[in-house]
Amino acid sequence: MNDRTVNASIVLLPGDGIGPEVTAEADLLIQDVARHYDLTLDLQTELIGGAAIDATGEPLPQQSLDACRAADAIILGAVGGPKWDDPDSKVRPEQGLLAIRKALGLYANLRPVRIHPSLAHASPLKPEYLEGVDIMVVRELTGGSYFGEKLEGDDFASDLCTYSREEIERVVIKAGHIARDRNSTLTVIDKANVMATSRLWRKVTDDVMAGHFPDVNYEFMLVDAAAMFIISNPARFKVIVTENMFGDILTDETSMLVGSMGMLPSASLGAGKFGMYEPIHGSAPDIAGKGLANPLGMLASVAMMFDYSLGRKDIARGIEQAISACITDGECTADLGGTLSTSEAGKAVRKRLAENSQPRSVTG
Q1: Helices in 7-91 by DSSP H: which ranges?
Q2: ∠358-359-364 over CA atoms, to 5°?
């Protein structure tokens, strides 16, 4: 295959709530990219989450999992909603999300946080706190209390938090490479003064950094202090790596730096190039079907897919530039102070991409 050509299979998992709306914009963007750059991209849509439960009784049907295993990348919308929120239910939408991460070995979740100058007003923080903020959060995705043994009764419950050396090593190595590429300090966030798993994280991190990254500076920080510094001095962070639950909570906190959860993309990666790409927002059932959802986090996730899984950084940069141009000109949804609907915002990005790209046909 020519190094400028991509022939890839992509599975779309729209899910629930606003998931189908933002996934529809991802679908249209990917189709436009294929035309502009003369690529062959096969798109297939499958079920996950509440929509899958309604159709099959399972949050991750075998057909969906098989399709994802055969693909080069996955685009995921969102899962969950009040329709499936019965706490006594044995089948819940989020089980599909946890299951697909585990089944496909997607152990590292990358969440970039950058501040667009035109959006400083959208953040609850004063603009001077946002200067120079450019953070990559690497969240461990398949271990910890989310996957540990659970006991639940009327008067007692427990969630076991477990980590092995191998689980910690692989995600710290991933974060170490990112820190080296960014010439940055790696911050490892834990709760080592209380939790045994955090103390293991510190031991393993010391071993990994000494053995693989002696040229990379790193530090440890307790999660409560990190939560404070993300608000009081976010620019001090460059690359963060942390365990599953801490990463889930802290990345939602970092979304407020940019003013909206709808802005942030993510990539869930394993050992190879295969990945699953999704905005960090939830299913937002209160605005579903109203055309209010911000699609930019999803479209930025598409950019990450072209970068990490499909090896086309040029396309990724083109999408990012198109998104940035739309934000600069106020072509965005209401959560960012704009007036566009979900579909209008997606169309604006595609228009900018078309203006900035030329059809490219590469022959070998």
Answers
A1: 19-37, 49-56, 62-70
A2: 125
Domain of residue 290: give its range: 1-114+266-364
Query: In the annotation, is 207 catalytic?
Result: no
pLDDT exceeds 50 at position 364: no
Q: Which is nearest to 150 in space by CA: 160, 163, 135?
A: 160
The answer to whether residue 146 is catalytic is yes
Both tokens of 151, joined, read 């006991």
Q: Is 224 an active-site residue?
A: yes
Please tell me whether residues 308 and 238 are part of one structural domain.
no
Residues 363, 278: one domain?
A: yes
pLDDT digits (tens, 9 = 90+) for 163-205: 999 999 999 999 999 999 999 999 999 999 999 999 999 999 9
246 and 148 belong to one structural domain: yes
SS3 for 320-358 is HHHHHHHHHCCCCCHHHCCCCCHHHHHHHHHHHHHHHCC
CB contact at 8 A, 197 and 143? no
In a domain, 147, yes or no: yes
154 in active site: no
Q: Is position 86 annotated as part of the catalytic site?
A: no
Same-domain status, 142 and 223: yes
Q: How far is CA 252 from CA 80, 199, 201, 249, in A?
A: 17, 24, 22, 5
**Count of domains in the chain?**
2
Q: Which residue has 């030329």 as its token pair? A: 358
Catalytic pick among 134, 159, 206, 252:
252
Q: Are residues 189 and 249 in the same domain?
A: yes
Q: What is the pLDDT of residues 126-162, one digit of tens each?
A: 888 888 899 999 999 999 999 899 999 999 999 999 9
Residues β-bridged to residue 267: 110, 277
The residue among 237, 277, 302 whose CA lies nearest residue 110 is: 277
Let me know whether 253 and 132 are in one domain.
yes
Which residues make beta-bridge pairs with 67?
none
- One domain for residues 346 and 327: yes
Q: Which of 107, 129, 146, 277 is catalytic?
A: 146
The full length of the chain comes to 364
Catalytic pick from 174, 191, 238, 347? 191
User: Domain boundary at 223, 257, 291, which?
Assistant: 257
Please state, in angstroms and rounded to a whole number, the distance separating the CA atoms of residues 96 and 295: 22
Task: Choose, from 54, 215, 224, 329, the residue flagged as catalytic.
Answer: 224
Residues 84 and 46: their CA atoms lie apart, in Å, by: 19
